[in-house]
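Z., the sequence and structure:
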Amino acid sequence: MSNSPSASIIELARSNVRELTPYQSARRLGGNGDVWLNANEYPLAPEFQLTAQTFNRYPECQPKAVIERYAAYAGVATDQVLISRGADESIELLIRAFCEPGKDAVLYCPPTYGMYGVSAETFGIERRTVGTKENWQLDLQAIADNLANVKLVYVCSPNNPTGNLIDAADLRALLEMTQGKAIVAIDEAYIDFCPQASVVAWLQDFPHLAILRTLSKAFALAGLRCGFTLANPPLIELLLKVIAPYPLSTPVADIAAQALSDEGITVMRTRVKEIAETRAWLQEALQQCPCVEQVFGSDSNYLMARFTASRIVFKTLWDQGIILRDQNKQSGLAGCLRITIGTRQECQRVIDVLQVLPGTGESSSADDANPTRVKLSPSKEPM
């Protein structure tokens, strides 16, 4: 081992952190594009004017106006809402409040959002995975068989990156089998695109249910970093014990409150309708491209598709300034790319490139050969 100061610092770090592969966010992956369809952001920036100017004072830990407005929007009481720095902080708060390193485990079902595993590893908590079925629904029997010492279960619905909702009956079965054993965190980051599928009404039946939300997607405020946990008061009170003293800055609380006004919510719903229309158009257009093998239905602001020679497709788009999200390393997603729903013009640019790329039997590349295939019928109906 080197005696350099930097080597000494590395030796001081926890062993699991030394070996940790950080979450590869869209910004970390980089790129020099002008069409960013890799982070499930809204393509156009909303405009807000700051109204609060008390920057010399610390902000409220839980800004009252934001709490009240989000509670009204979500249909819960104000004491059932906790605000955090994005839903990512909610993921970590639950681990900090409920999981003992070296004793407890978290469970999640890939392919799904990568931060569940990264956050658990950061805190030295065992990561236990139970793969989904071929249709990306929960394997309830396998979950039941792997619940020993599990204190926290994460489920994303609509699921990222596959875009599908998790069956409501399966979610209820999961909540029933974990009562008195584990917290179930249902990540509803994309639920604003299909609000009828939210399980928020189930809070009255399940004290161990936590629901994660964000303003990053339908509210077009990814840069704001404002998220929410919806749960019953005893669970919220525990999270308040471990959250930072001032999680939201004054400008963030100011803009969040404006976005959650009646006018702001109306604008958001118009945006959701526009995204759904563009998604339906893009889904149909993708199915006409020779290099596309399969397009999967989505209840979110992105589509996932399987491509012939997906790495060539990805690089061809990348070289033309169109940045997608490669899903090849995800369990069962060989050949898959995820495409955020951008503007109609941005989506047209994607199609213009894909239309001239070769399809099955025409490509000289075998880079996507993999026996693991998800056999689903592509949906032609907008979802």
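The first helix runs from residue 5 to 12. Residues 110 and 211 are 19 Å apart (CA to CA).

Let me know what you think.
H.
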